[in-house]
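# nightly structure sweep
# worker-07 picked up a monomer target from the shared queue
# config: single-sequence mode, recycle default, output format = structure tokens
# input follows
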Amino acid sequence: MARMSLKTIAIAGLLGCAAMPAAALAQDTTCRNGLFTKGDGFRQAQVTAKRAFFHEDTSGCPQEGTCRTRSYVIEGDSLVIGRSMGGFVCAFFPNDAGGTAGWIEASRLRILPTDSAPPLSRWEGGWSDGASADVTIRTGNGRATITGEAFWPARPEENAWISIHIGEVDGRIAITGNRATYADDNLCELELTLLADFLLIADNRRCGGANVTFSGVYMRTG
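# output follows
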């Protein structure tokens, strides 16, 4: 019987991997707090099942039975969904503690229509991510501006640390449809997406001190 050298086997393995589609080699299943808004195609959805459980994003998930967590949403709850994978959607449920993210079975949700050109008045008001950041959007004369603060590890009134890292935004936002962008002289950049009940923000991690971020799903406060 002919023997193959380790070098030959290694080369054959590499060639085999190269011939495989990228999705078969590694599929990104990341779906978690802190990273949720680093994407696109966001929509608002409503839970139609009695319960819809969140599933983890670790290896083999979300399809495997052991991936289901104890966290769930109930019929009528509104949440934000992003990309889909094998019958699941990456979902985020905002709450006063910052929210819960994970994979949810798409069959348990109803996708709500998105207003692709909301009036300026829909952007206006105060918004909070429920954790460590708040922003206010004001409109007038066909323009919109944003001001806000973000903190790490928490807001001053909720923090026992000696020092707090702070980030600030203050300036005009450029709105196109239900998307908007912000940039300032300090190299801070924001991308905003407005849905029916939520405002999504993704920043470039240059909007404040260490670990400070405006990235998150915001709910209206006023």
